[in-house]
Design goal:
Layout (H helix, E strand, L loop, with lengths): L2 H17 L8 E3 L8 E4 L1 H7 L3 H14 L5 E5 L2 E5 L2 H5 L2 H5 L15 E5 L11 H19 L3 E8 L4 H13 L5 H4 L3 H25 L4 H7 L1 H14 L3 H25 L5 E4 H4 L4 H10 L3 E2 L5 E4 L7 E5 L7 H15 L4 E7 L3 H13 L8 E6 L2 E2 L15 H19 L7 H21 L7 E2 L2 H4 L7 H17 L14 H11 L1 H11 L3 H20 L8 H24 L9
Parallel strand pairs: 5-6, 5-11, 6-7, 11-12, 13-14
Antiparallel strand pairs: 1-2, 2-4, 3-4, 8-9, 9-10
């Protein structure tokens, strides 16, 4: 039970004793900084039932609490009863909670759900880039947070491994690759395939330019360029099961999957299930037929199938082409249905950038119209784009910010800044490299996850590795500092009744008890930023306390043991918070 719940329980009991009335719920808030107290009861919702003035109600409840020694003081500001609690209120559960490895996590949520989180979902014609990094970090962290909130979680990705864009890389490799492989070139597999995607575009542009010079319009030239026609023909052969095309496709995709695996490992993300568009692109066609029969969809004269969503403020949406081939909406409909039929899930969360907001609005609405009750449990975690100070990324032109290069840059940036600060004197080279990786990746992940997902990010690698301010390394350093203290002296038993707790310690304990509520709220809002900023606030509170109150050097052994135990609790919550964000906590730094 967190302290807000405990406060609610105390207040409910007093209100029932005073007024013979049991409120359905009480509104408890953290007391605003300008007023004395730790928790505040909002009395306005009780006024009508109890027929009392707000100030009178606050004073009556406050005096009743005071007479039973349940609080140490109170003040009333209009309809707000601000409560101050005695030391024992904060201390009585400290020993038990400080040693809980999973403090704040919910083991048995009363309304536990089986949640599936879809994230990453890359194309196999190029490496994972900076935009994918935000996608992966959000998806992985949201999955962690749902699990910590007491739900069952399954992580899934669908890999876009077919289509004209894949054929472009294949055609370019056939024409210009001279049999090059990851082994012969020393190039990581996904990078090698991406190289030929860029190569295709370069030659394709030259062909367009040549055709335009011969009198064709830009649109005509794009359709008539020989390379583009070859890619189209290859796609037709792929769909027909041509053995040669399928073998080349399998070989090049194999290179990509191996490359993706290396990237995911360094990024620290994983998946429970994999789906491939080559297996799912035909899904949904049977749904379209059922929808036509039930009147959800309609056919146009050319044979194409549509749905009219104008009454819902949207537009008419194509769900099947006139030649009977699928569009993305078709397969997304089929994939959603297959997931609920195949996996034991109550909720499905799609982690996809905000450029797809309209697509998911339409997808969810169509599924609802098709009669799937679980359509109401679909959510789109829509996130903003990530850019660097020098502008946006364009994969066709080869100007993408590559994930592997960025992670290596973060390692080197952490190395440079740590070396300048001289923090790692006495470390072996192997220990240093391990720590640079932890710091660099922690900086990258925290910088991205501390921002509300809905907002865009301008990512600055050097700023992210600052050892001061709202950064991953600042939080990691505080954790390492506490571990250094605890290595010098372990917390021992202490007498709760003789502890004179100060305001700084109360603030830390109160904040620690908010961890469970933060996790639940973060899951509800699909926002790891709440956890990130919670742990930053905790670190600020601890560092302020550390600067103003001695821990190891205090003369009172009982106080020392209490502060060591409190420090241990803080470090455990820092560790758990960072772990929810996919960030490692170094023991030394």
């Amino acid at each position: 039970m967190n302290l807000k719940q405990k406060t609610t329980e105390i207040l409910s009991q007093i209100i029932e004793e005073l007024y013979d009335y049991s409120p359905d719920r009480l509104e408890i808030q953290n007391t605003r900084k300008e007023f004395e107290g730790q928790y505040t009861l909002v009395t306005f919702p009780l006024i009508k039932a109890l027929k009392k003035k707000p100030e009178d109600l606050g004073n009556e409840i406050g005096n009743a609490l005071l007479s039973k020694n349940l609080i140490s003081g109170f003040n009333v500001v209009k309809g707000f009863l601000n409560l101050s609690f005695p030391s024992e209120f904060w201390l009585e559960n400290l020993v038990e909670n400080a040693s809980q490895a999973k403090f704040g996590f919910t083991e048995n949520h009363p309304e536990a759900k089986s949640v599936m989180v879809e994230y990453s979902s890359p194309n196999t014609n190029k490496p994972i880039h900076l935009g994918h990094i935000r996608n992966n970090l959000l998806g992985y962290s949201v999955a962690n947070i749902f699990k910590a909130a007491g739900h069952k979680v399954q992580k899934i990705q669908i890999i876009n491994d077919r289509g004209i864009h894949i054929c472009k890389s294949m055609i370019a490799w056939e024409k210009f690759g001279n049999g090059e492989t990851p082994e012969s070139s020393g190039i990581k597999g996904d990078h090698l395939v991406g190289k030929y995607y860029v190569e295709f575009d370069k030659h394709y542009r030259e062909e367009i330019k040549d055709l335009v010079s011969q009198g064709q319009s830009e649109d005509e030239a794009q359709k008539n360029a020989p390379l583009f026609k070859e890619a189209q023909e290859m796609l037709i052969k792929w769909e027909a099961g041509d053995e040669k095309v399928r073998n080349l496709w399998a070989k090049m995709n194999g290179w990509v999957y191996e490359g993706f695996g290396e990237t995911y490992k360094r990024l620290g993300v994983d998946f429970d299930h994999y789906q491939y568009e080559s297996n799912t692109y035909l899904l949904g066609k049977d749904l379209i037929q059922k929808g036509i029969e039930s009147g959800v969809f309609y056919k146009k004269e050319d044979g194409s199938v549509w749905i009219d969503l104008t009454k819902e403020g949207l537009d008419e949406k194509l769900v099947l082409r006139s030649d009977g081939t699928s569009v993305y909406m078709t397969q997304d409909l089929g994939t959603a249905v297959e997931r609920f039929e195949t996996f034991d899930i109550d909720k499905l969360i799609y982690v996809v950038g905000n450029e797809q907001d309209y697509h998911f609005k339409v997808l969810f609405l169509i599924l609802k119209k098709l009669g799937y009750k679980w359509a109401d449990s679909l959510e789109h975690l829509s996130y903003g784009m990530v850019n660097l100070p020098d502008g946006k990324m364009k994969s066709r032109e080869g100007t993408v910010v590559d994930a592997d290069e960025l992670m290596e840059d973060m390692f080197l940036t952490a190395k440079e800044i740590s070396s300048e600060l001289g923090k790692l004197d006495g470390y072996s080279e192997e220990e240093k490299d391990s720590l640079y990786e932890i710091i660099g990746m922690g900086a990258l992940k925290y910088y991205i996850l501390k921002v509300d997902p809905k907002k865009g990010i301008l990512f600055d690698p050097k700023e992210s590795v600052d050892f001061n301010g709202n950064t991953g390394p600042f939080i990691q350093y505080t954790y390492a500092r506490i571990q250094s203290i605890l290595r010098k002296e372990s917390p021992a038993e202490f007498d709760l009744n003789s502890i004179e707790i100060n305001e700084a310690e109360i603030e830390i304990i109160r904040h620690l008890y908010n961890f469970e509520e933060t996790i639940q709220k973060s899951a509800e809002d699909l926002s790891p930023a709440l956890v990130a900023n919670y742990v930053y606030d905790l670190v600020k509170l601890f560092n302020s306390f550390y600067q103003n109150y001695p821990i190891l050097k205090t003369d009172n052994q009982n106080t020392k043991n209490f502060r060591l135990r409190l420090s241990q609790w803080v470090s455990q919550v820092i560790f758990n918070s960072l772990d929810l964000l996919g960030i490692n906590s170094p023991e030394k730094m």
